[in-house]
Amino acid sequence: xxxxxxxxLYLFILIIIAICxxxxxxxxxxxxxxxxxxxxxxxxxxxxREGGSVLENFDKYKDTTFAFHTFSxxxxxxxxxxxxxxxxxxxxxxxLLSIIVVFGTTIIxxxxxxxxxxxxxxxxxxxxxxxxxxxxxxxxxxxxxYTFCIPLTLIxxxxxxxxxxxNSGISKKSVCGVIISALFFAIALFHxxxxxxxxxxxxxxxxxxxxxxxxxxxxxxxEFNKDFKLLGIKLYLIFLIFIVVFYFSLTSFWEIYNRVxxxxxxxxSASGEIARNLSVSWEDIVRRLPWIASKTVEIIFTDIDKxxxxxxxxxxxxxSISGHPILNFMExxxxxxxxxxxxxxxxxxxxxxxxxxxxxxxxxxxxxxPPIQRAYFFVIPIxxxxxxxxxxxxxxxxxxxxVAISRKKVMxxxxxxxxxxxxxxxxxxxxxRVSEGGNKIWLNGLNQIFDFLxxxxxxxxxxxxxxxxxxxxxxxxxxxxxxxxFNDVIYYNKDLAQKTVNEFGNWxxxxxxxxxxxxFVFPAESYLMGNxxxxxxxxxxxxxxxxxxxxxxxxxxxxxxxNPKGVPLHYIYKxxxxxxxxxxxxxxxxxxxxxxxxxxxxxxxxxxxxxxITIKNGNNEWNKNLSFLTDGMDFYIxxxxxxxxxxxxxxxxxxxxxxxxxxxxxxNFKIVDGNSGLTWIESKQPANDLKYLFNFPFxxxxxxxxxxxxxxxDKSLMNLLKIAYSFDNRLYVLLNSIRxxxxxxxxxxxxxxxxxxxxPYPMSGFNEYATYNVFYPxxxxxxxxxxxxxxxxxxGHVQLSSHDKSTFFxxxxxxxxxxxxxxxxxxxxxxxxxxxEDSLVYLTLxxxxxxxDVQSQLTSLGYNLEDDVYAxxxxxxxxxxxxxxxxxxxxxxxxxxxxxxxYFNYNTKNLIPIRxxxxxxxxxxxxxxxxxxxxxxxxxxxxxxxSSGADKKYIDTQDRIKFWQVGGGPSIFRKSEExxxxxxxxxxxxxxxxxxxxxxxxxYIINPNVVESLYKHKVGFxxxxxxxxxxxxxxxxxxxxxxxxxxxxxSDFHPGDGQWHQIKVIKELEKKPSALYAHIFNSGSxxxxxxxxxxxxxxxxxxxxxxxxxxxxxxxxxxKTENETGLTGSELNAAAGEIVEVRLTExxxxxxxxxxxxxxxxxxxxxxxxxxxxxxxxxxxxLSGNTRSPYANLNxxxxxxxxxxxxxxxxxxxxxxxxxxxxVANLQCGISYTDGSYEEIYSGFHPGDNQWHQIxxxxxxxxxxxxxxxxxxxxxxxxxxxYIDNTIYELDGNIQSEIPNCGYEEWDVDGQYKNSFKTHxxxxxxxxxxxxxxxxxxxxHKDAQDVMLELNVKDMKHEQVISIDSFLHFHDPGKExxxxxxxxxxxxxxxxxxxxxxxxxxxxxxxxxxxxxISALKKVQNGAKLPETGLIDKSTLKVLFHSLSLSAxxxxxxGDFSKWELKDGFRWPVSWIAAGxxxxxxxxxxxxxxxxxxxxxxxxxxxxxxxxxGMIDDEAKGQNxxxxxxxxxxxxxxxxxxxxxxxxxxxxxxxxxxxxxxDGGEIVLRGKIAxxxxxxxxxxxxxxxxxxxxxxxxxxxxxxxxxxNMVRIE
Length: 1610
Prior knowledge:
Blueprint lengths: L1 H21 L9 H19 L3 H8 L2 H9 L1 H14 L4 H25 L2 H12 L2 H8 L3 H4 L1 H16 L7 H20 L6 H19 L16 H25 L6 H14 L4 H20 L27 H17 L2 H20 L12 H23 L4 H28 L11 H10 L5 E5 L15 E2 L2 E2 L1 E4 H5 L4 H12 L4 E7 L3 E4 L2 E4 L4 H4 L1 H6 L7 E4 L5 E9 L6 E5 L2 E5 L3 E11 L3 E6 L2 E6 L7 E7 L4 E6 L6 H4 L3 E3 L3 E5 L5 E5 L3 E21 L1 E3 L8 E7 L6 E7 L31 E5 L3 E11 L8 E4 L6 E7 L14 E6 L5 E11 H10 L8 H11 L10 H18 L4 E7 L5 H8 L4 E2 L14 E10 L3 E3 L5 E4 L9 E5 L9 E6 L2 H4 L6 E10 L5 E8 L5 E5 L9 E9 L6 E8 L6 E11 L16 E10 L13 E14 L6 E3 L5 E4 L9 E5 L7 E6 L2 H4 L6 E10 ...
Parallel strand pairs: 1-4, 1-5, 30-57
Antiparallel strand pairs: 2-3, 5-9, 6-7, 8-9, 10-29, 11-28, 12-15, 12-29, 13-14, 13-28, 15-16, 16-27, 17-20, 18-19, 19-26, 20-24, 20-25, 20-27, 21-26, 22-23, 22-25, 30-58, 31-58, 32-43, 33-36, 34-35, 35-42, 36-41, 37-40, 37-42, 38-39, 38-41, 44-56, 44-57, 45-48, 46-47, 47-54, 48-53, 49-52, 49-54, ...
Helix pairs in contact: 1-6, 1-7, 2-4, 2-5, 4-5, 6-7, 6-10, 7-18, 8-19, 10-11, 10-12, 11-13, 12-17, 15-17, 16-17, 16-18, 17-18, 18-19, 26-28
């Protein structure tokens, strides 16, 4: 028991240490091999998706590395492929798997060490392995090739060793052990990588050591170890046989799975690793032996990669570390002690240890040339084994036993030594990862790029990778896989670098019409290996990507990927479709006047050089003198809202004059020209200072300093460059110090790109001492000093170069107190720039609000636009207590939006009328309350009921709370002075008059202009509530999302103790919202009253924000309503049994995309770009009507400048229009004159002949015009379509150009959601369940928000008509109302009253005398042994039909194609699905609706419908059917009708009939419904391969039953 606790403690300590090393220091990115393996996994998944042989698919991708990784070393790919099948493909899977493997290795090492010696040895061995620096370096690569090697070696050897521990011969247990061990050896062999095969070597040497000890044990030369015994020959044979069996089982499975020939793995393995390892000659071995032996000693005991000699190659650079040996000094001492002890002890285990060391070191010496650092990876377990022996024997052997130090002291000393090693190694590997980036060079930060791409992964993205000369992003860019899909990728240098700036802008515009986002990923200026150190890079955006910057207004990155020290690694720029609405303006020296119909805000500045900027917008002026900028200095103002900017300065050492810019003085320096475009500055005396001063009118928050010095490494180590900064020019803080390393030449490195004399002049030695430092000054003044210190006998050996902009200073600056209020840019804004001619200013303008909208907003607020909008703005500013600028400045703009949107939201409540018309309707109020269905909210139901037959009118007065909305029909709602938490009033809210219907509430709609800014913030809503009952009062935050989804987050309930409590609800907005609501609910009954006061909205717990107007409920107003009473007549039930005609109008949100510069008005059901019905050009406008006023329209507001000249001229407005409806399409012109009068003129209507006609109107102006708006109207319903094209206007007969986009060829990219309306009309019978029937019959639009019902009760007499209006609120948008039976599928309405009379029932509305409809129906059901519901369900309807021998029922829904819906931007017939490439459109046959089906290139264009399961019941099965369809076609043999039956055994019964006549007519297909049918589908087919050919179908009927009874109902 004690041993188990001890082992558990050891393992616990080891796991904690592993967490510190491998989780805290976990690799964040791949090396080049790790990235290649990740891409292989991605590509393998892609190859499997495409089907066929994986090898053949790999060949198509033209990259042999995929096949090499998959079949030459298959085990890592095998594991990762199936892991990703479970968890999804992500680069983090590789890191996760590496961490798991390392933890497993730690545990395996412990148990192996315990088996070799004891638990203490296992602990020491596992610990020293886990904390070894080089072991951690290899782990940092994220390369599962390497990380699998040691665990496979250890576990295979461990299982083999265990077989020999206390071996007792052949038994079931020993055979099982042999099989398990063979499995791990087979996996290692399946991996093939040489380092993973050392389990075989160790096992062989172990057996040899056992044989040797048995042979020489009695001589005293070797100490015999009794714990381990040799196995029998049979067990060794079983072991070898199972290795072969398991190996070929694994390879065969992998080959079959990948659909490649058997033997592929063996072939690739042999031709790869085995062939490569047998390619060394003995002559080479002998020749290089001395040098490699010395290099091996250097790598193990001195420096793994001295001077970055290997890493600077760039290939596999992350598998080495400079400045650290495999064994540090303390580890080396214990290693030597371990070797000495093994020589002294000489047991079989010690002989085994010595032999493995000799073998592995010998293998390296004889095999690897030049020495490859990663080849030494497999030596680590051997070296660690000797270290563990040394630690154990030094402390527990020598100190404890020989010196007789107490065991407690030994434990203390041992723990102290191990702790020193742990801390030493931890700091080394931490420095390697953080300061040196793990030597991953440009592959650092790749996972941050993946993370950024993941955020937009569900969009249609184009990713552009930028690099220079090197494939910076490796295989990541060849198969970019994000969010389970491959992203389209192009390369900047290959595809875009040759474009001009204008061509680049056009490419951006065209590309964003196809993609949602363009994401550019560029490498940063430099990747340093050490600091100072070797630089790998392309010197950044200004060097190679100038055209990209200029075409996009010199933007700043969307994200800068940085290393842990803040040094930039990659720049990511993301542009979405909003880019299309921006303007990029280059402002020249002098004055620039911007002319625009819109108001813009300046989104960002880019300024190069010292300039003065003045912006004038009316009386608003903004001026900034940027004289602190100098040549080579660029100033970015990223966002005028964030008040943050960036300054970049690139020193120029081409001349002393340029080099002196921004320096305090420059003496005794000279410029040296290297004759190849490379110049540098150097001192003419031994010691000298180059000092820069940056003095800005704002604080520097962050400074980035990058330099490119070169130093001659004199033997005296005197050459030195120091870089330091100061705020006062007295106390300096050292940033970097670069000193000679004494190698006697320029350059720090010994590798292929290093060592001054190894490179051609003048580049020798540059880029090898590059520095990059980040610090945070928080000061407006900054000194940077470069101290040049040369050896006393020479000058010019310390140099600084600016070549390729490789030296720069970047500053992030705080502009919060500097910028001030920048005016908006509107029509005739003036921007004046003064400064040197070569200075440059770029503005990025973002459209803020359309100018006509300002006028409409002010008008809606009650202001009259008299002289001009500026006078009105002045009055608004005065009333709003804003500075009276008479201009649309920021404060005024925000105030207008704040008031306007709250006013708008209040006045557009989702309230809609229900109108009931019919004879004999009296007290409908009670009937409505009792019969309103659950999907209708009875807001104001009890207050607003009118009747045209009323005999008394009265005025009703109500309290209304300003800026808030009331929901749910509370029993009482008013302001309260009795119970108040704060202030004068609170709000009193009663429960609902019928609790099962809904809950009552007051609601606030948050200003839409601030909603998007709350994305990724925590939003809180609180209010003080008082209630006397529990579970009644609470709060909620409601959220709508752009994709149509919505969410409501509820708070806890008030406890109901009659006291005031502050209730809160908080929600973090993880998705971008489109609308936000605050709700205060009363869920109680009609008697339960709650009080609310002092509401508050806050963001990120930072206190109150001004989102809620009237949040303390102090502002109220009285609403007076004229009502009528004295309703006369009988109840609604008196009309039961009569036919009611139902008209339902639903409102839903529909995305309207405007033709550029034009607006869509009047809430059309459909407004979109049209590509087919075009008068001229490529596109026209397709506009439907709506079901209510105002009429749907396309409108344009004429610019004010030309309108002012219209007086005394004749104005003509004309447009080409096409429609098939009479009296719906015409033109209108609204004219406002300067004297305040207003006039409207109209054109005649389009004749409705479905041809293009130019419709026009003419007006001779007699007085000055102020404003002029033109409209094209569609006055029809939602089903009337008008096409509009080529709009012009003339003055005195001359065509003018002030109407832009008059041919409607340009369209906005981002649309806006507007109200659209759809109507449904059908007939039914008045019953008590009329409301439920309506609910069942209508499938509402998925985004429906409210509904208006009009019910016309018909009877034999039509003299009396009484009207009742009630406001109802539809509160369940998006719910599709299913219907089991559709009455309007009958060819014409059936009079239920007449049917029942014919059956012998006496029907009359007065229930006390006659049966009544419901009673009669119950009797019918009773006679048919059906449930007596009194409703017309399907079974009851069949009984009625059978009793009267009525015509059969059409089993097809919407067979007359009278119902159409908008789906994915197209109109489709309801209940029908288009397939095979067909498209459907609405046509007319004899004035009736029909459907036209196009052909398709797949030769299978068709519509089809699946008959609902409930329609084909047991009674229908086995019956005859008749499918009858009318058709017309321009050609013969195009059309076909088809009925397909899918049986329960999945067999198909397929019948069809072709339409042979080209003229049209009717085709009938007859057959029988199978008794075991599962599904029935009806197809209407166009067999043409051309989309130009159409077949028109109409009146599709499917009758099931007797042929004789199957007739069409006309």
